[in-house]
Amino acid sequence: MTTSWADSVAASEEEAVAAAPAPAAAAAAKFSSDQASQPRPTRRTYVPPHLRSRPQSSVAPAPPSAAAPAVNDRSGYGGPPAGSWSTGGFRPDAGRSGGGHVPAGGRNGRGGGRDRGRDREVNPFADKDGLEQGIVGQENAAINFDAYEDIPVEATGNNVPPPAATFADIDLGEALNLNIQRCKYVKPTPIQRHAIPISLAGRDLMACAQTGSGKTAAFCFPIISGIMRGRYVQRPRGRTAYPLALILSPTRELSIQIHEEARKFSYQTGVKVVVAYGGAPINQQLRELERGVDILVATPGRLVDLLERARVSLQIIKYLALDEADRMLDMGFEPQIRKIVEQTGMPPCGLRQTMLFSATFPKEIQRLASDFLSNYIYLTVGRVGSSTDLIVQRVELVRESDKRSHLMDLLHAQRENGFHGKQALTLVFVETKRGADSLENWLYTNGFPATSIHGDRSQQVSCLVLFVL
């Protein structure tokens, strides 16, 4: 029989011990017994530098009790190990935090599709302490709904759907209706009353309304409701984002505002809203797109950049909304808009639903409407091209040397006449950047918290200022 090298070495050692004389064997046995009786050298304990100068205590620390079981106070690991025997038999879920049944789709109830991450969604209605106010029996004090009743509305087109008197008359879905109550919207504004039923009917819309008339909710509500009702869309895997809805706006400030409002409307609905605008690092926006997007709010320039990078695809767009379309044309965005709509694989008009909102109706807007819309309804709210009647405009002639004192009088009057206990916000326009900084310092010195935004401020500072306001 063949033996290994280790077996041959062990056999030779045993033969050597057996052949040794008796005194040598006794000495070897005594050495082994003395070695076993001597205590093993202990490892020196670490002493922090600030305690090394103190005299060491002569009392040795008590050894750990062998009878006391080791206690693990970490959350989720206090019980027996997973898949162990316990009283009552074998439990495959033993040792898990909370035990019990793990919902389908993964732990923490994270299923597939739009339900993923719903429990981790940040509550946009919570205050700085993370608490949410009640939603029943309250009205948004910042909006005077009764002032909208006398605004004239005219809708032209074929088979115009009837307007809705209340939000209860519109079937938007339970989750969206709950968010409307959280926003404390009691009844729709005139443009919402007419535009929401038109959009829910699947019709294209061209709406002319002033700023402050509720246009954001007028196109966000139908888009969110349509995505919630729509069947699940299988999207290709990869780093390219495939949104279902696109909202274009001319400026990053307006895009941020639309994104914040859309986040409130889509809270706990499973609809993911992402914003993309220029003047800010693109890496964070790319990470948000990779996490998934249903509604993309973007400015034309940044969207063209994302399309050229192949990080966004518009091939499955179902809803297209253009806010402040006349301003986008004034800023020279018509080539980018036409490239986005006509040359990037977006479904043509008739296969997508398009909503175009503008404060005026020049010939350029009429040409866009004829190219982008199909069998659309033309809706006018108020007087086209004018400011809303809810804004009081007053012109006062003041000498240059008296402007600051007159501004101080206005600010003191606003402070005394606070609106429902809230400090009124004031927006002051100046001629130069230096004048903005000088006025900011002067107001702060006189007890009025102030800040300024101008071209020399970075985009992060400007966004922070708008967030604080």
TrEMBL record:
Domain DEAD-box RNA helicase Q: from-to ranges: 165-193
Low complexity bias locations: 17-29
Domain named Helicase ATP-binding: residues: 196-379
Keywords: ATP-binding, Helicase, Hydrolase, Nucleotide-binding, RNA-binding
Motif mapping: Q motif: 165-193
Lineage top rank: taxon: Eukaryota
Catalytic activity: ATP + H2O = ADP + phosphate + H(+)
Pfam families: DEAD
Comp. bias (Gly residues): 96-111
GO MF entries: ATP binding; hydrolase activity; RNA binding; RNA helicase activity
SUPFAM superfamilies noted in UniProt: P-loop containing nucleoside triphosphate hydrolases
SMART domains, per database record: DEXDc
Family membership: Belongs to the DEAD box helicase family. DDX3/DED1 subfamily.
Protein name: Helicase ATP-binding domain-containing protein
Source organism per UniProt: Eucalyptus grandis (Flooded gum)
